Amino acid sequence: MFSLLCFIAALGFYFISKVYISAYNITLSNKEQQIAAENSAKQSEVEELQATVRTMQDKKQMLGMLENQIQDNQNNIYIIGDNE
Fold it and tell me: How many domains does the chain have?
């Protein structure tokens, strides 16, 4: 009788543990997917910023963005702001 009671208790513990671990696994899987989505978004943001930096490193592109706010002095020195 005692061994039957222990077996039923162990069986109950097994099923409760199995359900808990399965639920926890689903939670971890959802968290993993969320982190992967955030990582993908950050990676695309980094790529956009790298493209912007490459564009701004081009001297002609940078000077074109400044339009009338820049003054050329001896083709090498650029004065930005007021023409004073």
Answer: 1
Residue 63 located in a structural domain: no
Q: What is the 3-state secondary structure (H, E, C) of the chain?
A: CHHHHHHHHHHHHHHHHHHHHHHHHHHHHHHHHHHHHHHHHHHHHHHHHHHHHHHHHCHHHHHHHHHHHEEEECCCEEEECCCC
Within a domain: 61: no
**Among the listed residues 51, 30, 49, the one whose alpha carbon sits nearest the alpha carbon of residue 41:** 49
State pTM to two decimals. Answer: 0.55
Comparing 32 with 64, which gets the higher pLDDT?
32
